[in-house]
Amino acid sequence: MHLSRDVVLLISHSGDFFTIDRVAEALLKKGAQPFRLDTDKFPLEVQLTAHFDKNKSYHTIEYNNQSISTEQVQAVWMRRIWEPQLGEELAPKFREACIKESRATLDGFWDSLKDARWVDNLERIDYASNKLRQLRIASEVGFAIPQTLVTNKAEAAREFFVQVNGKMVSKLLTAISRSMQANSSFFVYTSTVKEEDLQDAESLRYCPMVFQELIPKQQELRVVYVNGNVFVGALNADVYAAAKVDWRKPGVDVGAWQHHQLPDEVIRRLQAFMAKFGLSFGSLDFILTPSGEYVFLEINPVGEWGMLEKDLDLPIANAIADTLLAE
């Protein structure tokens, strides 16, 4: 089936639900035609064809009995890109090459959509994903940030531990596959560091880590920015045990999200921060300290927000749809 109306391409994966469904529903209500592309289904279930000649080039894509060409796509929502799911029948020696070629083919497809409106542009997402750059720019726009050390030197980590009076957490600069996680989640989620953890810190020589002072919490905030609109959910720090430093960790019962209003000054800094990255969308994490200070932790340019829409009835999907359809 060919789609004739203005198409908005929703880039995600087959396990995605709720958020992508809400955005698709909002687009339909506004008269646009969503087309969901599950990246993990390419190349086995998604057919993509690119045509090039001296006069023009175009791509067509077929999935779930629907077909579109790049010329129909007016906007793109970049939600997630996942690795291909390749069948067991494919010999392991060919798997890496097939994944590499599939990724390169998709990169060409994204390039063919350069004239569409993106939320957000892949280059800007990549630029904004660097957590050290995030801290630098957050500081430049006036946000408070945690004292931070990034090192592959064990002695530097031990000295920092003393400097922050033993109140220290560790985290990674990049996302890591769950399949790589060790027996503990120490290396995957933001985790409290104890003195005994640093006894074998010589392993840092293989992989640098981020260490930060542990910020005292009154509330943890998830702030979702959509094209100038700001949506906030708050969790009281006493909702979960003090040892559970990261509410995103599986099994942490975080309790109910609450509404929260950011001060105007924080919103102005947030707008300046997003403008520096040229992003229309971002999910940001802050801590509100007992003394009333807002401390910036990080931004995920493709971060989660479904729990805020679900629990607090915040119209985030509608704001994303409006941004995708804006002139």
TrEMBL record:
It comes from the Bacteria. Residues 135-325 form the ATP-grasp domain. InterPro entries: ATP-grasp, ATP_grasp_MvdC, MvdD-like_ATPgrasp. Keywords: ATP-binding, Nucleotide-binding. This is MvdC family ATP-grasp ribosomal peptide maturase. It comes from Anabaena azotica FACHB-119.
